[in-house]
Amino acid sequence: MAVYTEVSDDALRAFLAEYDVGDLVAYRGIAEGVENSNYSLKTAAGDYILTLYEKRVDPAELPWFLGLMQHLAHRGIVCPLPVAGRDGAALRVLAGRHAAITTFLPGVWPRRVGQEHCAPLGTALAALHRAGEDYAPVRANALGPQSWAPLLTRSLADGGAAADKVQPGLAAELQNAVETIVASWPTGLPRGHIHADLFPDNVFFLDGKLSGLIDFYFAATDIWAYDIAVCLNAWCFESDLTFNVTKARALLHAYGAVRPLSDAEMAALPVLCQGAAIRFALTRLFDWINTPAGALVTRKNPMEYVRRLRFHLSATGAHAYGV
Amino acid sequence: MAVYTEVSDDALRAFLAEYDVGDLVAYRGIAEGVENSNYSLKTAAGDYILTLYEKRVDPAELPWFLGLMQHLAHRGIVCPLPVAGRDGAALRVLAGRHAAITTFLPGVWPRRVGQEHCAPLGTALAALHRAGEDYAPVRANALGPQSWAPLLTRSLADGGAAADKVQPGLAAELQNAVETIVASWPTGLPRGHIHADLFPDNVFFLDGKLSGLIDFYFAATDIWAYDIAVCLNAWCFESDLTFNVTKARALLHAYGAVRPLSDAEMAALPVLCQGAAIRFALTRLFDWINTPAGALVTRKNPMEYVRRLRFHLSATGAHAYGV
């Protein structure tokens, strides 16, 4: 549930006066989302999303994120388009937070992923990568391989007791995995801007078709195929954490039809998937250990990604993913 | 923040197939609200609110609430209108909860109450009372005077230790107040259907005019002027808990222009306001004591209503409220 900054109607009206979107008609806080506060906003001109950036987002990076969304939208990717105020600025301040208005995207994210979602996802991901090619600014991936050992160290500051309370032996298992994965991390693979968090709740469908991609606030410049690995983790495991190779094959084939994967990218799929799994296992473990009991957020169990990680560690090649 | 039942897109599509509202376009959980789960829902036909009734609402009473809203809407009160399915039923089941779709009301509730809000509020409240006159079914007020002593007893089950932890002496202060207020509770005052929870977040304004009333799930058949007393408590105290008599006068005059208050109603204002203050003090105290630390709801401090109660106990007549 959302971290939640309360916005007064007076403050919002003053904020909207800087835009050409007409008068305020309604606004309601959105319950989904963890990182930022989101409001659905209706004005005389239509529906929008108002986002207030909470403390996990570095304000200095907001222009990069908004610029990427603007660039992608102009290249035909259906994603939230930042709305500029009359002075041309899309990034402003509201209720003590950096804030932006973006266009509203119709569509519904799939609560239960089916095989039919995976090919459109692969197509959209490849199109996203292609569309980002001529967006010049770069952003290092703050949650890339170089971040994993330090992040794990912070979670094991108590000698691993908290981690081992999640599951006995977890501290040692994660330490070994980080070492192994970072040591075999591929170099020289094609790079560009990646979404880096393309989970089902960030992908909308409408009438059976993919209708939009949202939430670009983990986007970064990194290995393209790593973005595929994030999706294989997030979309291709069943609720019992068995791997659905049919979904994976659909995703990979559809992606490859837009941007063919090289042999090196194919060969790297297992380690990239291991990396994606440990990235989410590590942030979830950190949040699990450090979220106060009374916090207004739901903690996610890190073991769901530790179990995915084990699957990928057992994969000996791209064939494990159906290709 | 809302108690929150997750609804899958598949389940929602199946649910919507029972209605003539066209295909699903988008839905998002609404962060506001405590008692029920609310979604903003967009279909090909427009905007709606989807409500899932959580456990505090007695399913047997839902037809009364929905019937009242339907009745009031047809009498010209702008309130959510329950939308019937093709079979004529407005009350259905979704995700294991009783659920209903209502119309979307444009407007924004005032985060900071100004004097200009209070006259429209009084007018709307009196109109609501008048419009409800020919809605025949009755509902006893489950949070009326007869409920206060038992509710307090449950909060003092530990001998008053938890209450006295909120503020030393609170247990005895509330026991005395309940006895005094119930003993002097007025009889014979005009009755009808009341909203009983008309706080600022349940009243929408648009372009400076009151545009709608929402959340009728505490409505009951009780003393009309008690509804005014709830509003005097909720709208006419400043954030430092001083009483703003100018706001009260605006509210009472506007109300009286639509439904004139009798001398008996005027004379009863202090005790009715005491009753309204203790009703909210008691439910907040109960929730304060019984809300587990990890719960996804924000507890409200009961002292805000204890301090209002003290003001009303010092009031010697209607003149304290500006009339």
Topology:
The structure is a homodimer of 323-residue chains.
Chain A (H helix, E strand, L loop, with lengths): L8 H8 L7 E6 L7 E7 L2 E7 L9 H13 L17 E3 L2 E7 L11 H17 L13 H11 L5 H6 L3 H14 L7 E4 L8 E4 L2 E5 L6 E4 H12 L9 H14 L4 H28 L12 H11 L10
Antiparallel strand pairs in A: 1-2, 2-3, 3-5, 4-5, 6-9, 7-8
Helix pairs in contact in A: 3-7, 3-8, 4-6, 4-9, 6-9, 7-9, 9-10
Most extensive interface: A-B, 38 and 37 residues
Give unreliable regions of chain A as ranges: none
Question: What is the 3D shape of chain A?
Answer: globular
How much strand of chain A? Answer: 5-15%
Under CATH, the topology of the largest domain in chain A is which?
Aminoglycoside 3'-phosphotransferase, Chain: A, domain 2
**Beta strand count of chain A:** 9
Q: What average pLDDT do the residues of chain A reach?
A: 94
Q: What oligomeric arrangement do these chains adopt?
A: homodimer
Q: Largest sheet of chain A, order of strands side by side?
A: 1-2-3-5-4
How would a crystallographer describe the biggest sheet of chain A?
Answer: 5 strands, antiparallel
Rounded radius of gyration of chain A (Å): 20 Å
Number of helices of chain A: 10
**Fraction of helical residues of chain A:** 40-55%
Indicate the structural class of chain A: alpha+beta
CATH superfamily of the largest domain in chain A: Aminoglycoside phosphotransferase (APH), C-terminal lobe
| Terminus-to-terminus distance of chain A | 37 Å
